[in-house]
Amino acid sequence: MKICIINGPNLNLLGRRETSIYGSKSFELFLPELKDAFPELELEYFQSNHEGQIIDKLHETGFSGYKGIVLNAGGYTHTSVAIADAVAAIEAPVVEVHISNIFGREEFRKSSLLAKHCKGSISGFGLESYRLALHYFLSLKPRKLGFGAHK
C-alpha cells in the first residue's frame, strides 16, 4: 500500500526550530522509524516550503495509485485555499496532521481550511501524529474474516 507523506513550510527545520513546540528530532531521523514500524506500507516523503510544489505533489499522488496521503501543510493549513482545493479535487484520501495542538495555540491556528476535505485531522501528539495517521490507513487494508476481524 503506497502512502505519501507531504510536509509543508518550515518542517524541514524540525529538530532545530522551536523545539519546545515541535520537538528535537528532524523528520529525516523520524522517517526511518516509520518505515521500520510499517514495513507493509510503501512510504514516500516530500517536503516543500512552496505552495505550488505542494499542490503539484498532491495532484501527482492523488491520482496515481496511492492509497493515502498524510499531509502536514504547516502554516498553509490556515491560509491556503489553493491547497484546500487540491485536497478536495484528488481521489486519494488525505489525513491532516499537526505536530502541535493547533487548538491550544494562537487564534489564527485554530482553524483549518483543509479539514473539511480530509478524512480526519490529528494534532498535538508530536511526531506520533504521523504514526497515528498511518495506523488509520492500515485499518483500511482488507482483512480475512475471523476473530477480531472487521466485517
Automatic annotation (TrEMBL):
<feature type="binding site">
    <location>
        <begin position="99"/>
        <end position="100"/>
    </location>
    <ligand>
        <name>substrate</name>
    </ligand>
</feature>
<feature type="site" description="Transition state stabilizer">
    <location>
        <position position="17"/>
    </location>
</feature>
<feature type="active site" description="Proton donor">
    <location>
        <position position="98"/>
    </location>
</feature>
<feature type="binding site">
    <location>
        <position position="78"/>
    </location>
    <ligand>
        <name>substrate</name>
    </ligand>
</feature>
<comment type="subunit">
    <text>Homododecamer.</text>
</comment>
<dbReference type="InterPro" id="IPR001874">
    <property type="entry name" value="DHquinase_II"/>
</dbReference>
<dbReference type="InterPro" id="IPR018509">
    <property type="entry name" value="DHquinase_II_CS"/>
</dbReference>
<comment type="pathway">
    <text>Metabolic intermediate biosynthesis; chorismate biosynthesis; chorismate from D-erythrose 4-phosphate and phosphoenolpyruvate: step 3/7.</text>
</comment>
<feature type="binding site">
    <location>
        <position position="72"/>
    </location>
    <ligand>
        <name>substrate</name>
    </ligand>
</feature>
<feature type="active site" description="Proton acceptor">
    <location>
        <position position="22"/>
    </location>
</feature>
<dbReference type="GO" id="GO:0003855">
    <property type="term" value="F:3-dehydroquinate dehydratase activity"/>
</dbReference>
<dbReference type="InterPro" id="IPR036441">
    <property type="entry name" value="DHquinase_II_sf"/>
</dbReference>
<keyword id="KW-0456">Lyase</keyword>
<comment type="similarity">
    <text>Belongs to the type-II 3-dehydroquinase family.</text>
</comment>
<feature type="binding site">
    <location>
        <position position="85"/>
    </location>
    <ligand>
        <name>substrate</name>
    </ligand>
</feature>
<comment type="function">
    <text>Catalyzes a trans-dehydration via an enolate intermediate.</text>
</comment>
<keyword id="KW-0057">Aromatic amino acid biosynthesis</keyword>
<keyword id="KW-0028">Amino-acid biosynthesis</keyword>
<dbReference type="Pfam" id="PF01220">
    <property type="entry name" value="DHquinase_II"/>
</dbReference>
<feature type="binding site">
    <location>
        <position position="109"/>
    </location>
    <ligand>
        <name>substrate</name>
    </ligand>
</feature>
<protein>
    <recommendedName>
        <fullName>3-dehydroquinate dehydratase</fullName>
        <ecNumber>4.2.1.10</ecNumber>
    </recommendedName>
</protein>
